[in-house]
């Protein structure tokens, strides 16, 4: 279980470090945030290094924990279903373990994605921490899970496949 946890945590953090600049550009294009050019490539060159990692703190912490939960719950579910995680033979068990893993990650993914999206789309340079404080102030713990039902369904089905 220790190896599952750390493998998941490191892979989640690495994925965010690599993918966050592209995700940031996607969010800005989808939210209509004004840019100096309509070209995503030109936008990326116009950004400073700090601008391309905006909102990365919450995802690094969150997705590391998310992947750790996913790896542990997936492997434990396969064991529970009588499968060897390294060589599962039943595809229904693999799908079920992925779905359970996806559902388990909802605890981390819903607030992490909400904070990340709000941070990236804020035009005033808010930090992940200030967005979290604002969400918590307005809605408490429940406020951090706005849209969480859809996130849990997406993750359960998506990780199942």
Description of the molecule:
- The chain has about 160 residues and is mostly helical.
- About 80% of the residues lie in helices and about 0% in strands.
- It contains seven helices and no strands.
- Helix 1 (about 1-30) packs across helix 4 (about 55-80).
- The chain is elongated.
- The mean pLDDT is about 80.
Q: Give the integer mean of the pLDDT values.
A: 81
Please work out how many helical segments DSSP would assign.
Answer: 7
What is the chains' assembly state? single chain
Please provide the ordered H/E string of secondary-structure elements.
HHHHHHH
The number of strands is 0
* Terminal-residue CA separation: 23 Å
Largest sheet geometry: none
Helix content: over 70%
User: Segments where pLDDT lies below 50 for 5+ residues?
Assistant: none
What would you call the structural class?
Answer: mainly alpha
- The coarse silhouette is elongated
Gyration radius over CA: 18 Å
Proportion of beta-strand residues: under 5%
Short description:
The chain is built from 7 helices and no strands. The chain is an all-alpha fold. The chain is elongated, with a radius of gyration of 18 Å.
């Amino acid at each position: 279980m220790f190896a599952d946890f750390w493998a998941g945590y490191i892979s989640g953090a690495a994925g965010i470090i690599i993918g966050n600049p592209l995700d940031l550009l996607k969010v800005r294009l989808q939210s209509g945030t004004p840019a100096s050019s309509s070209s995503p490539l030109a936008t990326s060159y116009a950004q400073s290094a700090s601008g391309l990692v905006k909102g990365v703190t919450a995802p690094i912490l969150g997705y590391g924990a998310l992947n750790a939960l996913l790896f542990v719950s997936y492997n434990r579910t396969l064991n529970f279903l009588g499968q060897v995680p390294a060589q599962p033979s039943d595809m229904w068990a693999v799908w079920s373990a992925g779905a359970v893993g996806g559902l388990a990650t909802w605890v981390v993914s819903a607030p992490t994605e909400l904070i990340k999206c709000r941070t990236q789309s804020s035009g005033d340079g808010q930090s992940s921490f200030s967005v979290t404080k604002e969400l918590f102030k307005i809605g408490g713990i429940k406020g951090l899970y706005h849209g969480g039902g859809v996130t849990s369904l997406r993750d359960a089905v998506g990780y199942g496949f």
